[in-house]
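User: Some background: our group keeps a shared notebook of sequences we're curious about, and every so often someone picks one and asks for a predicted structure to add to the entry. Today it's my turn. The entry only has the sequence so far, pasted here. Could you supply the structure so I can complete it?
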Amino acid sequence: MDIEVGEKIDYLEPTVKPVANHIFIFLEVFGCEGGIQSYVKDILQSYTSLGNQAKGEVFLLRDSVGCPNPFEGKNLKFHYLKSQNPQKGRLRLATSLLACLLQRRPHHVFCGHINLSPLVRLLCQPLGIPYTVLTYGKEFWEPLANQERRALKQAEGIWTISRYSRDRACAVNDLDPKKVQMLPCAVDGNYFTPGPKPPALIERYNLGGAKVLMTVARLWSGDIYKGVDVTIRAIPAIAQVFPEVKYLVIGRGDDQPRLAQLAQDLGVADRVIFAGFVPTEDLVDHYRVADAYIMPSQEGFGIVYLEAMACGIPVLSGNDDGSADPLQDGRLGWRVPHRNPEAVANACIEILKGDDQRCDPQWLREQSLALFGKDALAQQLKQLLV
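Assistant: Of course. Here's the predicted structure to add to the notebook entry:
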């Protein structure tokens, strides 16, 4: 018997008592580190904090058994489906997910990446199970393939991290903005905290007596939108007002030689320090070294701004991206044209003068955590799951 997608199958009854309210499907969470992985972990942590009302199962396409997983057993059951053959892995995901849908009949399915949405649509619609697609930013800022666009249009909901991502994606993919709900990134205020500048790092990077600007970013030639080159171009003007200014760049990538040469050409090579890769556990001390976090970028959101603000460090971002949300349209930080060195220089000078409320460490931390702390995320997730 042929079944059309979208046709509800009333005669298929679950073979066991339902044990899952929600099903989550992600590409990879524990096998690597990145912005998406951090965001998903925050969602899972918030989900486990919701108590008995939340009972779910998580399917992981590229993670394997043995990956460190602090959420195992906390009202979540995990299915690890990594395979050496990508096609075999997707087949395992499809068959395992279908079996779970038939047996558990969950209240809702949450698709954790746009690339998985056609499969989720194909399996959920015939069973009459509603699904929501989680999005992050760039992966749906440009026109999507027909099957992915169809999966978004037919989803019950779409979650994304910022108004900018919502507006840009809806415009290019003809999506209904009313279907899109916000679930922004969050920051751990117990981990990212203010503190004195660590003497060991001051010595390591030769920052004694310096006014320190800082950026954390991948230095890839395909990611020049992060604005490290723009900040380097702004340094000569900043140095005229603050001769002690230095710029600490954390990250690595194939664009570093170009950036180093730019600093040399502008005569500021002695002011630009390339720190290379810094492990996550050492980031807090590096934020504390900074007098300002500077990243005139184009972000889907920009969790680094939250990390800096939680440490009491004033921030600068671009003015045409998702950073409008963490910076609250400029209420919590400076937003400037992202490719304009003069605008960056002027804003950095204001920040280093320290006269603005946005430079008050305690106020900045309190404001950012009230909106984007882990407790705020848990409350937002709870409301979305109702």
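Suggested note for the entry: Residues 22-183 form a domain with the Rossmann fold fold (CATH 3.40.50.2000). Residues 86-104 form the longest helix (19 residues).
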